[in-house]
Amino acid sequence: MIRVLVADDEPLIRAGIRMILGSETDIEVVAEAGDGRAALELAREHAVDVLLLDIRMPVLDGLGALAELPRYAPSARALILTTFGERENVLRAVTSGGAGFLLKDTAPAELIQAVRAAAVGHAFLSPAATRHIVDSLAASPAADARAADARARLATLAPREREVLDLLGEGLSNADAGARLHMSEATVKTYVSRILAKLGCDNRVQAALLARDARG
Predict the structure, then answer these.
(1) Helix, strand or coil, per DSSP, at residue 50
(2) Tens digits of residue pLDDT in 108-165
(3) If phi over 0 gives left and psi between -120 and 50 gives alpha, with beta otherwise, what is residue 123?
(4) CA-CA distance, 33 to 9, in Å (whole number)?
(5) Does position 85 have pLDDT exceeding 60, yes or no?
(6) Which of 17, 182, 209, 214 is the most exposed place for a label (fewest CB within 10 A)?
(7) What pLDDT, on a 0 to 100 scale, did the predictor assign at position 25?
(8) What does the pLDDT read at residue 127?
C-alpha cells in the first residue's frame, strides 16, 4: 500500500485529490495538511511514502518543505503541485530533489501514475509539465549558455542512451520507453542509471531537462 500525504491550503483541492487516489486499491491517503510545516510533521508521524506538495502554502511553502523533507522522512518522495503562473518556482524545485511535477488540472489517471512512479523511486514529469518548464527555460537569458553546456554533456552518451534520454524528455515511464524501443523495462532502467551517472544528474527530471536544453 502506498501511503500518501496531501498538502494544500485549499480544502477543496485536498478533497479532490483524496477522492481520486482513494479509488485505487494500492494507494491510501493517510494524512492531509494545510501548510508545509504541518506536512513535514505528519509525514514523519504517518511514515508517508509520497507527499503531494502545493508550492504556495502558509507557514512553510512547498519548496521549503521539500528542502527539509530528508530530515523528517528520508525515504519519502515529494511530487510538486503547481500552476502555469509559477514557472520560476518549478525550476527551483527541479534542483531540490522533487520526484516530479503536476499541474493542478492534470488528468486523474496521470496523478495516479505519478504517485505510483514516485513510490518506487522514479521521477514523473508529465508532458504538460515538461512543456511548462521548457517554455520557461527557453525564455531565460541564460538559455544559450545552458544549451551549449547540455550539448557538451550529452556528447558523452552512446546513441542508444540518447534515444532513451529523448523519451525521458517526453515524460515516458521506463515501461513506456521500453515499449517504444522494443526493450524490457529492466533494460531501460539500466540505461537510465547509466545516463544519470554520465550526465551527473540526481534524477530523471534533471536529465530530461538537460536533453531539452540541448535542443536549444
Answers:
(1) strand
(2) 988 998 999 889 887 777 666 666 666 665 555 566 677 788 889 999 999 999 999 9
(3) beta
(4) 7
(5) no
(6) 182
(7) 95
(8) 62
Residue type, position 103, single letter: L
CA contacts within 13 A on the Cβ side of 69:
31
Pair 31, 51: CB distance under 8 Å: no
Q: Note the Cα 188 to chain centre separation in Å.
A: 18
The three grid cell numbers given for residue 136, joined into one nine-digit string: 520557461
Quote the CA–CA distance of 84 and 30 in Å, as a whole number. 28
Residue with cell 540505461: 191
Q: Which residues contact 182 (CB under 8 A, 6 or more apart)?
A: none
Per-position DSSP letters for 99-167, written without gaps between them: -EEEETT--HHHHHHHHHHHHTT--EE-HHHHHHHHHHHHTSTTHHHHHHHHHHHHTTS-HHHHHHHHH
Q: Which domains does the chain have, with CATH numbers?
A: 2-135 (3.40.50.2300), 142-214 (1.10.10.10)
pTM of the prediction? 0.69
Write down the residue that cell numbers 557538451 correspond to.
Answer: 152
* Cell, residue 198: 554520465
* b/e 67-93 (16+ beta carbons within 10 angstroms → b): eebeebbeebbbbbbbeeebbebbebb
CA dist., res. 64 & res. 31, Å (int): 19
- Contact indicator for 7, 54 with CB cutoff of 8 Å: yes
